Amino acid sequence: MWIGVILLLFGVIGILIGYLVPPRHVLLDAGDPKGNAYVDEKAQEYNTTLDMCKLTGLIFFCIGGVTLAMALLFPSFLTHYCDEESRGEDPAIKVPLQEDADKGPVSPLQMVIPASSKVKSVQPDKKSEQQMLTQTSSPTDQ
């Protein structure tokens, strides 16, 4: 994992150096009246080195990111090799207890609604002297 982090850091440093260091001018003014210019070969090499630094930094950054991602993902894919229960030579035999078999359904989704039950009203009974508002009539319309 630390190799991926180190490669990421080297990649970021290489990219920053490649982009933040200013390039040199390739054409040098000769100063003659004809307007001739000379090519500075050292400036060309310097600018090529900066471009290579950008490219190398980008490659290190990508390789470091892939290495770090693999280092973080592999343990989650390989958890069945690391189980402590499977390391023992004698596998444990699991037998359900009788108490667990006698219990009823655990969740409401497993419960069955009895077919012989009656539907009960949950609203209280209405008294005759109470007023009711309905959609069709209201006390102000009378």
Automatic annotation (TrEMBL):
Bias (Polar residues): 130-142
TM stretches of this protein: 5-22, 58-78
Name recorded for this polypeptide: Neurensin-1
InterPro entries xref list: Neurensin
Keyword Transmembrane: yes
Disordered: annotated segments: 114-142
Coiled-coil portions: none
Keywords: Membrane, Transmembrane, Transmembrane helix
